[in-house]
Amino acid sequence: xxxxLVAALLSTAFAFSAAVQAQTYEVDGQNSLVEFxxxxxxxxxxxxxxxxxxxxxxxxxxxxxxxxxIQLPLDTVDTGTEEADEELVKPEWFDMAQHPTATFESVQxxxxxxxxxxxxxxxxxxxxxxELSFPVTxxxxxxxxxxxxxxxxxxxxxxxxGSGSWSDPSLVSNEVTIKARVVSQ
Length: 185
What we know:
Elements: H1 2-21, E1 23-26, E2 33-40, E3 43-49, E4 53-58, E5 67-73, H2 82-88, E6 101-113, E7 116-125, E8 128-140, E9 146-155, E10 175-183
Antiparallel strand pairs: 1-4, 2-3, 2-10, 4-5, 5-6, 6-7, 7-8, 8-9, 9-10
């Protein structure tokens, strides 16, 4: 009886301590951003999205319990020119009236090495989904907040971004490099 009680208490304490280590963080939309880079008629173009929203569950000791759900309001796009920003609203590009938000949801996170992880998940843009796998580095900023940084490439054609005459890769390259910096609150 005593052994059973002790075993039950120890397993409960272990489960509680494991659960305590996993922490849930809200995304700091003010300090998080997603940058993108592509070529248009051979010229490198850049832009960014801001005001990310979402939740990250982080547990350095048990990466398999980690997860991320991120929402990206597409109307925050900033290409540096008002004309390009207005063009991206249209159905040929992001069709923001029908699809105002892009989302990413992790399905698995694995440790690579100290403070580096592989994140597997699903990106949805403009009603199209794509499975992705990319490296993420975790650090702390000067105020102690967790910072998650990633860089990967997507094919804009997989999401039907730039349809019609804009689908020609000699006009706008299909490969788009994404750099994300997600800061916790």
